[in-house]
Amino acid sequence: THSSMYYNGSYKIRTQNTGAEIVGTIVATGADINGDIDVDGHTNLDNVSIAGVTTTTEHIHIKADNKRIFVGASDDISMYNDGSSSRITNQSGQLIVKSPIFTVQDSGNRNQIIVRDNAQVDLYYNGTGPKIQTASSGVNVSGTTTTTGLSVTGVSTFTGAIDANGDLDVDGHTNLDNVSIAGVTTASDNIIIPDN
Questions:
Q1: In a designed cystine with 124, which of 46, 60, 117, 129 is the match (CB 3.0 to 4.6 A)?
Q2: Three-class secondary structure assignment of the chain
Q3: φ/ψ of residue 8, rounded to 5
Q4: pTM (2 decimals)?
Q5: How do the pLDDT tens digits run along the chain, 196 residues long?
């Protein structure tokens, strides 16, 4: 059998073989629960302290701007949205991201950066490319390279034409198979033409 407690003719608490059934709202200044809590409806909690693992099978929503998720003993890293931009802030050490293939895309799902494990790094422009690709031998560039200065300490090999619109200053030996000059040539030393 069970025992029931009523209020104004309607039962509010009824004992069961597994515990008690409560109908209505419970108002308490504190609760110490050692077992599981099974809530089928909405739960509104002002503050929750969890000393253990939390597992969820659905989404986690933070329905407010500038409300952060903090991780670390000293809140070392945080993630939030400020209303216009999403931000990740790291306060200690390095921010390390590990992935066999790491891809950065723009809002149109176009590739911007692709980093591959033990391989090259690709840089794209508007999803086309790669325009710059690292290689074991250096860097491969696809397209036109515009630079205000270029310092080369090793050998450069060009398979196509070189168009120099400005001055070309060569301090060392230059071996040219064919030279076409449309203009004045000025030499500060002897010009030697060997007799073949």
A1: 129
A2: CCCEEEECCEEEEEEECCEEEECCCCCCCCCCCCCCCCCCCCCCCCCCCCCCCCCCCCCCCCCCCCCCEEECCCCCEEEEECCCCEEEEECCCCCCCCCCEEEEECCCCCEEEEEECCCCEEEEECCEEEEEEEECCEEEECCCCCCCCCCCCCCCCCCCCCCCCCCCCCCCCCCCCCCCCCCCCCCCCCCCCCCC
A3: 55, 40
A4: 0.63
A5: 788 889 898 889 989 888 888 888 888 888 888 888 888 888 888 888 888 888 889 898 899 999 999 999 999 999 999 999 999 999 999 999 999 999 999 999 999 999 999 999 999 999 999 999 999 988 999 988 888 888 888 888 888 888 878 787 888 788 888 888 888 888 888 888 877 6
**In one letter, which amino acid is 62?**
I
CA-CA distance, 75 to 182, in Å (whole number)? 68
Task: Name every residue whose Cβ is closer than 8 Å to that of residue 24 and which is 6 or more positions away in sequence.
Answer: 12
The sheet with strand 101-105 has its strands ordered as 101-105, 111-116, 121-125, 128-135, 138-141
Q: Strand order of the sheet with strand 69-71? A: 69-71, 77-81, 86-90
In which region does residue 118 sit, left (phi positive, over 0), alpha (psi from -120 to 50) or beta (all else)? left
